[in-house]
Specification:
The protein has 524 residues and is of the alpha+beta class. The chain has helices spanning 9-26, 28-50, 54-57, 62-87, 91-101, 105-117, 122-153, 158-168, 192-199, 235-245, 279-282, 284-287, 322-332, 344-358, 374-389, 402-432, 435-462, 467-477, 481-491, 496-523; strands spanning 176-182, 203-210, 213-215, 228-233, 246-248, 263-268, 290-297, 300-303, 315-320, 391-392, 396-397. It has a five-stranded antiparallel sheet with strand order 3-2-4-1-5. Strands 6-9-7-8 form a four-stranded antiparallel sheet. It has a two-stranded antiparallel ribbon with strand order 10-11. β10 and β11 form a beta hairpin. The model has no long low-confidence stretch (mean pLDDT 87).
Length: 524
């Protein structure tokens, strides 16, 4: 009977592992492409989400908030440098720990791209990945822990802070209204457009009551003594109008029995032929017998001033009779289903411009190699600009619906992280389950908490910053959604999101550029 051949199981195992490794290597380029595509989708959608209100928020407290958020970023870089010097952490690992400690994926991706341009060994790139993955969960804990520490340190009652913050941020543009009686003889015989010009750009006269008749006035409507006026506008504009017209009345003429003919309705702009036209060019009182008083855009309310351009998906608050409102609907579209259709030309153009912007070298004094915004920074800059523009001409629309934005954003980050895991699993296992991993965890907590506590204490002691805003500001300075969710839960509403969205764009750019500068300074 012939002897059965001896099977070398160890050799077979080595052969199979080698075949799997070669197979994975052959697909490495594909995985890297998918990873970068996912990152671009993620950051572009983030920019489209926070961009519309960014420039507007720079007024008033927005500048102060951004200075504080930038201070958190710079202090984080300083603490990371101390970690390298004092603890002896390798700079490649340190930049990964820093990005993970503030949960900033785009900054981490930018650091990886810089390491590859410097021809860094695969081991150093693996350290960056592992440092980020190990630090990430503890970064979330450190950020939320800092918010709790500040609350306990200053004995803050969140409910009182929310009420104070809400009171200080009421009275936004277009939110006020007033009822007046024409009692100034100098106004009698003047047209509505003349009165509007005297009051300034912040006022819209939406209806006039004369005797038992109430109507939407055209610009050439002539006022008479005893006419009752309802106007919408900002606080200063309404005060000026009151001084001009003559007498403020407590009765709201919108509730009068004679006004049953006039209706207020929200109309959505979905007709691309009117996109980019100003309120003056639409001339709704003359062409449709109705008037637009407010515009709701990206969750914010604007006054419908003559020089205000109309964007796709704007929600116009229109006053008029049934026939007039139907004419307005026919003019501007008012087809809600159209909002769900993707605007592919605007989406692809925005992403393409962002990728090109990311490849432009930016020289930095004192550093031999220029910095690039890269695939993490370029798309977010393009998204900030295009989301504020809203359109390019009448047929290139940059609108992305909320549902589509959420889907693309989550899909993009899922692709990115999945590919990172597939490409770097071996390195992560080597570092995470070792004594080195414990050192990284301690460094992550230091990098996340020290800058937040310093800025938080200074903001509270010297600038008397409201805790509701401070929570959103600090969460935004780390671009950390879980921390924002904690802040919203503490406040019992979404008011912290105002500060979060205000500082997020600048913080994101600083994180991306800062990670690259850190790598170039230590390894360049």
């Amino acid at each position: 009977m012939a002897e059965r051949p001896v099977v070398d199981e160890a050799a077979i195992r080595v052969k199979v592992e080698k075949a799997i490794e070669e197979k994975a290597h052959s697909r490495k380029e594909v995985l890297e492409f998918i990873r970068e595509f996912g990152l671009v989708l993620f950051v572009y959608c983030i920019g489209m989400m926070v961009g519309p209100g960014f420039l507007q928020s720079l007024k008033y407290q927005g500048v102060r908030w951004n200075i504080m958020a930038a201070s958190v970023v710079l202090l984080g870089l300083g603490v990371t440098c101390l970690v390298v010097v004092v603890v002896g952490l390798h700079p490649a690992a340190a930049v990964g720990v820093m990005s993970g400690s503030v949960t900033n994926t785009p900054g981490w991706a930018a650091a990886q791209a810089t390491l590859k341009e410097l021809k860094a060994p695969a081991e150093q790139i693996g350290m960056t990945v592992s440092g980020y993955a190990v630090a990430y969960p503890f970064g979330i804990a450190g950020i939320i822990g800092s918010l709790i520490t500040l609350r306990l340190l200053f004995r803050i009652r969140p409910k009182d802070e929310v009420e104070a913050f809400a009171a200080a941020n009421t009275g936004t543009v277009g939110a006020g209204n007033i009822n007046l009686k024409v009692s100034n003889p100098g106004i009698a015989g003047k047209t509505v457009s003349h009165v509007d010009s005297l009051a300034g750009d912040e006022v819209v006269v939406s209806r006039v009551q004369r005797g038992d008749e109430q109507l939407v006035p055209k610009p050439d409507f002539v006022l008479a003594m005893g006419d009752l006026i309802h106007a919408v506008g900002g606080k200063d504009g309404l005060n000026r109008l009151s001084e001009i017209v003559g007498e403020r009345i407590d009765t709201d003429i919108r509730e009068a029995q004679v006004c049953h003919r006039l209706i207020t309705r929200e109309v959505i702009v979905t007709n691309q032929h009117v996109v980019g036209d100003s309120i003056a060019k639409l001339d709704l009182p003359r062409t449709c017998g109705a008037t637009c008083t407010r515009i709701k855009r990206h969750g914010k309310e604007l006054l419908a001033e003559d020089d205000t351009d109309v964007h796709f998906a704007d929600r116009l608050m229109v006053v008029g009779d049934e026939m007039g409102l139907k004419r307005v609907e026919e003019r501007v579209g008012n087809t809600p289903g159209q909002l769900d259709h993707p605007q592919l030309i605007g989406l692809f153009l925005g992403i393409a411009v962002g990728v090109v912007l990311g490849q432009i070298p930016i020289p930095v004094p004192g550093i031999s190699q220029p910095v690039k915004l890269g695939l993490a920074g370029g798309p977010i800059v393009a998204a900030l600009v295009f989301s504020a523009m809203g359109h390019l001409g009448k047929y290139v629309i940059f609108h992305v619906s909320k549902g589509a934005n959420n889907l693309m954003r989550e899909f993009g980050i899922a692709l990115f992280l999945a590919c990172v895991g597939l490409l770097s699993a071996q390195s992560f296992v080597h570092y995470a389950f070792s004594a080195q991993g414990l050192v990284w965890i301690g460094c992550a907590l230091a990098i996340s908490m020290i800058p937040l506590l310093i800025v938080g204490v200074v903001a509270r002691l010297f600038f008397k910053e409201n805790y509701t805003a401070l929570m959103g500001l600090l969460a935004g300075s780390c671009t950390d959604p879980p921390a924002l969710a904690f802040a919203n839960g503490t406040a019992g509403n979404e008011l912290p999101g105002l500060a979060y969205a205000t500082v997020y764009p600048l913080t994101m750019l600083l994180r991306v550029v800062g990670a690259q500068i850190f790598v170039l300074l230590w390894l360049g």
